[in-house]
Specification:
Rossmann fold, 300 residues
């Protein structure tokens, strides 16, 4: 019996890379999985491929339970269909792993409105549509007096936590997802729903395009950026054992698991009266000098 035995999980963007590793690990740990993937390129362009079907076939061949989904996570009605597919096939829903996304890398001075909107749509709206329908289901159960022990797992990024040169749209979207996670955790706990986020560091089509050979580094025989490294954390966060862990942002590289602390209060000066314009500059310089050094923007 795996740690997710009897649970049903939707994984978006589960045809390749991290999502594929998550789906396979969840199934190996006993979960029934809705494998959602449109089969698009790393830039979100349509192809004739069916990676969702391939992952489902692999899960079933190993004795697991899975169904494919080819719905667009950023479409409101499609999000409803994804949730309904889980309920129709498996009779319940316990977790949503929001992993789907793509990049349109561009320096800010060259970014277009169309590229910006496309990235915001798949990441921010994509995190909204499926999850909103799942929350409606769980909230209805809670209001009916039924026990709810549900999970939402969002995907942010180091780009969202500290910024990344050439990825202004992606960084902004992923920062929004980190903030969304905090709000969801605060609002949804009353319904038995835990909400966390991952900032995975793994080799995917997106990261290989941005960081190249650095994504193939090994230490002590461990492939640091293998997507499979992150999958056990995802399986545990979707399990019943993770109850009570909520509002957290996790980072994982190789075997190093850590929590991101996010925005916290830093140095302050209180003069006890309204600041005068001419005094602000010196105070700001003292505060900047006193603060701990921030993590640098990726690529800076």
């Amino acid at each position: 019996m795996g740690i997710c035995a009897g649970r049903v999980v939707i994984v978006t963007g589960a045809g390749r890379g991290l999502g594929r590793a998550y789906a396979l690990e969840l199934a190996a740990e006993g979960a029934a999985v809705v494998v959602n993937d449109l089969g698009v390129t790393g830039a979100g362009e349509a192809t004739a491929e069916d990676p969702a079907g391939e992952v489902v076939a692999a899960i079933r061949a190993a004795g697991g339970r899975a169904i494919p989904s080819h719905d667009d996570v950023a479409d409101w009605e499609a999000g409803r269909r994804i949730v309904q597919a889980a309920l129709a096939a498996f009779g319940r829903l316990d977790a949503v792993v929001n992993n789907a996304g793509f990049v349109r890398d561009r320096m800010f001075v060259s970014a277009t409105p169309e590229e910006w909107d496309a990235v915001m749509r798949v990441h921010l709206r994509g995190h909204f549509c499926v999850t909103r329908h799942a929350v409606d289901h769980w909230r209805g159960q809670a209001k009916a007096g039924l026990p709810v022990d549900a999970r939402i797992l969002n995907t942010t990024s180091g780009a969202g936590l500290q910024g990344s040169v050439g990825q202004s749209a992606y960084s902004a979207a992923k920062a929004g997802i980190a903030a969304l996670t905090l709000v969801q955790a605060a609002e949804l706990a009353r319904y038995g729903i835990s909400v966390n986020a991952l900032a995975p560091q793994a080799r995917t089509r997106m990261t290989e395009a941005a960081f190249g050979a650095a994504m193939r580094r090994s230490e002590g025989g461990l492939d640091l950026y293998d997507p499979a490294n992150t999958a056990p954390l995802v399986a545990w966060l979707c399990s019943a054992d993770a109850a009570g862990v909520t509002g957290q942002v996790f980072e994982l590289l190789g075997g190093r698991l850590s929590l991101a602390l996010g925005w916290t209060e830093g140095p302050a000066e209180d003069r006890g009266a309204r600041w005068q314009s001419g005094d602000v500059g010196a105070a700001v310089r003292r505060l900047v000098a006193a603060r701990p050094a921030p993590k640098p923007v990726w690529g800076a």
